[in-house]
């Protein structure tokens, strides 16, 4: 579902991602962990071209989002649009449109990008809101919801485009544990339904219990890529051991 080969990204000569390669099978839930500044967000942002990689290859759901041998170009907006339809992204800060109801937040992208008629988009959106437990607040504005509800609305909004992959960048960092649990529960449910998901997270308990695999990054590289039990009980790399000692 996702194939990354030799991904490279620098900011002002400072290397942030160095030869990152990663594969995701359909239905896998991958957690990405690692110290602050190691390149986790940049990796996710490259996967939907919020950042333009300097080099390497990415395929998502069979679509190449680079053009082999051709330099990545910010000009290629059509490519970025096509790609973003396949990749749902959820951020730490919810990023809902404040002046639109929850329902309007969810129907906007299908109506604008897919020209889905409002009625049809609304029916699909209500089904998604029901799935994430928000049917009762569909007509409220984001500010009137808890953080956990807002984040679940953000997930429903991303799902409305029927993405092949869902990406989450620290989706629960701004939430109290109880509200974080609601959001993690939605991700578990999507996993059971076969969604392919990548989550950057500090929730080590969730990463261990829910992930198929965990990637540990440090200094712009993937240091270790292992099933959760192996990574937590027998990390192969001393940097992984050090990191886990500090966070567990
Ligand atoms: P993480 O998510 O693991 O904390 P990031 O991917 O956000 O790490 O950042 C990795 C490094 O890249 C950091 O040193 C950060 O300061 C730098 N960085 C990220 N985005 C930019 C940007 N747009 N411009 C310049 N430097 C950036
Ligand atoms: Mg980050």
Structure in words:
The protein is an alpha/beta fold and 248 residues long. The two termini are 31 Å apart. Helix content is 38%, strand content 24%. Strands 6-7-8-3-9-10 form a 6-stranded mixed sheet, with helices on both faces. It binds adenosine-5'-diphosphate and magnesium ion.
Features of the shown structure:
248 residues, 6-stranded mixed beta sheet, 4-stranded antiparallel beta sheet, 38% helix, binds adenosine-5'-diphosphate, binds magnesium ion, P-loop_NTPase
What ligands are attached or bound here? adenosine-5'-diphosphate, magnesium ion
H and E order: EEEHEEHEHHHEHEHEEHH
Oligomeric status:
single chain
Beta-strand residue percentage: 15-25%
Please give the share of residues in helix: 25-40%
Précis, in short:
The chain is of the alpha/beta class and 248 residues long. It has helices at 40-47, 77-84, 102-113, 118-131, 147-159, 177-192, 204-210, 228-233, 238-247; strands spanning 2-11, 14-24, 29-33, 55-60, 63-64, 87-90, 165-169, 196-200, 213-218, 221-226. It is 38% helix and 24% strand.
Give the helices and strands, then pairings.
Layout: E1 2-11, E2 14-24, E3 29-33, H1 40-47, E4 55-60, E5 63-64, H2 77-84, E6 87-90, H3 102-113, H4 118-131, H5 147-159, E7 165-169, H6 177-192, E8 196-200, H7 204-210, E9 213-218, E10 221-226, H8 228-233, H9 238-247
Parallel strand pairs: 3-8, 3-9, 6-7, 7-8
Antiparallel strand pairs: 1-2, 1-4, 4-5, 9-10
Helix pairs in contact: 3-4, 3-5, 4-5, 5-6
The protein binds adenosine-5'-diphosphate (ADP) and magnesium ion (MG).
């Amino acid at each position: 579902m996702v194939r990354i080969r030799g991904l490279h990204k620098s900011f002002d000569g400072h290397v942030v991602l160095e030869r990152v390669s990663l594969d995701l099978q359909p239905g896998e839930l991958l957690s990405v962990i690692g110290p602050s500044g190691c390149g986790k967000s940049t990796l996710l942002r490259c996967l939907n071209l919020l950042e333009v990689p300097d080099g390497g290859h990415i395929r998502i759901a069979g679509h190449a989002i680079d053009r082999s041998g051709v330099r990545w170009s910010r000009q290629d907006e059509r490519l970025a649009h096509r790609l973003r339809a396949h990749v749902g992204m959820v951020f730490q800060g919810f990023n809902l449109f404040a002046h639109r109801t929850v329902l309007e937040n969810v129907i906007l992208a299908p109506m604008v990008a897919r020209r889905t008629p409002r009625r049809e988009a609304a029916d699909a959106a209500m089904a998604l809101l029901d799935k994430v437990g928000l049917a009762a607040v569909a007509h409220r504005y984001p500010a009137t919801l808890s953080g956990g509800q807002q984040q679940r609305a953000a997930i429903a909004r991303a799902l409305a485009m029927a993405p092949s992959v869902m990406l989450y960048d620290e989706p629960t960092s701004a939430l109290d544990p109880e509200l974080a649990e609601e959001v993690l529960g939605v991700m578990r449910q999507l996993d059971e339904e076969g969604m392919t998901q990548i989550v950057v997270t500090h929730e080590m308990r969730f990463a261990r219990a829910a992930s198929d695999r965990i990637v540990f990054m440090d200094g712009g590289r993937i240091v270790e890529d292992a099933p959760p039990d192996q990574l937590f009980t027998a990390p192969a790399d001393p940097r992984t051991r050090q990191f886990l000692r500090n966070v567990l």
